[in-house]
Design a protein that fits this description.
six-stranded antiparallel β-sheet, alpha+beta, elongated, five-stranded antiparallel β-sheet, 17 helices, 24 strands, 588 residues
């Protein structure tokens, strides 16, 4: 089984591929052996050159929303090898200020109609016309009558029609909302005129017993010398009225009354009269094939982003007719005076700005050769340019806001990082509660968690429970911290305590060498140091001696240590950590 889609139109895109537009919401299924597959023509698969897409002198429509000639029709004046080299010239018609002025006047007309047009229910209409409700219900609906020679004619006003779930109204005369029928004052005027011209018909309808059978119109003209002639006059009156010429519209709908359409047409004619009275305006040259639209095939349409903005159409909206090979030329400007249906079945009543031979009078609603009934997708609003510009402005504002938020976040992270990495010394803060020298330089860096962890774990082991640095080693450490360069990071508390521990270890090593090692009994009996425990003591002694040399002792040794410290850009962290781990091992 294969799925079949109904093709509404076909067109050839810029790359030369044959494309189809399918009828939305329609599906059919067929047996596979009943379907024949055909390959597309090979010639249509070749990309077409710019000269084939936009021949020199052809009519094109400007769809560049940033150009002043947006919506204008012009001609191609130059072509090249690619689409970017295509140029077209457009004459600028109404300015942006004039378009805004015209749109404001049309909106004022629509607002006035909404405020002035009154609507009544069926009971109120009957009361205003001084008729019975069942008579008014028959006349406002479909009323089939037997006229001359027993010919069936519909002499009803057809302002309300219900066929199952489908409800149809008469534009500007009736509307079905919230399960009730409502009728405008135009319906009241038409009903009063109908009764005035043919009072016998209304009297016969009041006496009618069976409403399921056709109405015998000859019974309404029993007093007339020629009943057939009277019936023909009745039929002629009904077919000649405006409410009989109009087409039924599905509910809901939007439509402008004939009086409002006349005012809109007057405003449009006035603005174009002003345009013709002034000298010719300047022209604009638009370059780029993607900024032009040529209505070559019936399936060709402007860019989808322009048509997507026109999904919700309202009466009074200004726009352009963009259907290729339609009843009026592509690019004709018009005003929406009626909206019927929704979705892909939506239809629009358009009032053209200029006369066209392919136009009509919309069943008496507009002047001859000024009306057009068009599908919804064939209308591109003029305010799409403003919509796209607002969308571009909104995107730019959002982009700037995102950039500003990112920069603020970077600044916050930078400030927090700067605050975290700025060195602070223990002399500027509260004194440290550990067993360490008061003058020892301490680096409190919240970001260096690893250094903090090392301090917490190894500092008690390095210092010992009863080991305190003497004034000599503390002074050396303080002098060392003061003699460091300004750009170098200050030593941590562990490095300062390392000097004191190194000095103590050095003294202990010296005592061991001279044989004056205190002896102990029990579990803490002194044992000889292992080889891997003797190296850290030597390193500690060396560190203590270097700190002493920096602190002002040793003469030439101090100068050598200072020059070595100045040349050294960064300590050997691996060696330092090995020393720290070695210092953490228990010993006497």
């Amino acid at each position: 089984i294969v799925e079949i889609k109904i093709v509404e139109s076909s067109y050839v895109d810029i790359e030369g591929h044959l494309r189809y537009r399918y009828r939305p919401g329609h599906r059919e299924y067929r047996l596979f052996h009943l379907v024949r597959e055909e390959d597309p023509p090979s010639g249509s698969l070749r990309p077409r050159a710019a000269s084939q897409l936009f021949p020199l002198g052809c009519a094109v429509l400007c769809v560049a929303h940033g150009a002043a000639a947006f919506g204008q029709t012009g001609t191609v004046v130059r072509i090249g090898k690619d689409l970017d080299s295509v140029e077209a010239r457009f004459e600028i018609g109404l300015t942006q200020e004039e378009n805004d002025e015209l749109q404001a006047e049309i909106h004022q007309v629509v607002a006035t109609q909404h405020a002035s047009l009154k609507w009544f229910e069926l009971v109120d209409i009957a009361k205003q016309a001084r008729l019975d409700v069942h008579v008014v219900r028959q006349v406002l609906g479909s009323l089939m009558a037997r006229c001359q020679e027993a010919v069936r004619e519909d002499i009803g006003m057809n302002m309300m029609s219900e066929s199952g779930d489908k409800i149809f109204c008469l534009p500007c005369y009736s509307v079905h909302t919230r399960g009730k029928w409502k009728f405008s004052e135009l319906t009241l005027e038409a009903l009063v005129d109908y009764r005035t011209r043919f009072p016998k018909v209304f009297e016969a309808l009041r006496k009618r017993q069976n409403e399921e059978r056709d109405f015998e119109a000859t019974k309404a003209f029993t007093d007339s010398p020629d009943a057939d002639y009277a019936c023909s006059r009745l039929v002629k009156y009904c077919t000649g009225c405006a409410w009989k010429k109009l087409r039924l519209a599905p509910s809901p709908y939007m439509a402008l009354a004939p009086s409002g359409i006349a005012e809109v047409q007057k405003s449009v004619d006035c603005i174009y009269k002003r345009l013709r009275s002034r000298p010719a305006t300047a022209s604009e040259l638009v370059r780029g094939g993607h900024r032009l639209f040529r209505a070559e095939e019936p399936g060709n349409r402007p860019p989808e982003k322009l048509l997507a903005l026109s999904e919700d159409k309202v009466i009074g909206q200004r726009g352009i007719y963009v259907k290729a090979k339609g009843p009026v030329p592509c690019g004709a400007k018009a005003t929406v005076v009626g909206v019927y249906g929704s979705g892909h079945t939506q239809e629009l009543e358009l009032l053209l700005d200029k006369d066209s031979f392919g136009a009509s009078d919309l069943h008496g609603r507009v002047q001859g050769m000024r009306g057009l009934m068009a599908p919804g997708w064939a209308f591109m609003p003029v305010d799409a340019r403003q919509c796209l510009q607002r969308m571009d402005d909104d995107r730019e504002v959002q982009k700037q806001q995102r950039a500003a938020s990112r920069s603020s976040n970077v600044d916050e992270r930078g400030s927090s990082s700067a605050a975290a990495t700025s060195p602070t010394y223990a002399a500027q803060e509260a004194p440290v509660e550990r067993n360490e020298p008061r003058n020892a330089a301490a680096r409190t860096d919240p970001s260096s968690n690893f250094t903090s962890c090392i301090d917490e774990l190894l500092l008690p082991k390095a210092n010992g429970s009863n080991v305190k640095a003497n004034a000599r080693s503390a002074g050396a450490a303080s002098t060392t911290a003061e003699s460091l360069p300004a750009d170098a990071p200050p030593p941590t508390r562990l490095f300062s305590n390392l000097a004191a521990s190194g000095a103590t270890s050095g003294a202990t090593s010296s005592a061991s060498a001279t044989g004056k090692v205190p002896s102990s009994k029990g579990r803490n009996k002194q044992r000889p140091l292992a080889p891997d425990q003797q190296a850290p003591a030597a390193v500690g002694a060396a560190v203590g001696q270097s700190r002493e040399s920096v602190g002002g002792r040793g003469g030439g040794r101090r100068g050598a240590a200072s020059s070595a410290a100045a040349k050294r850009s960064e300590p050997d962290w691996g060696k330092v950590f090995d020393d720290l781990l070695a210092l953490g091992k228990p010993r006497s």
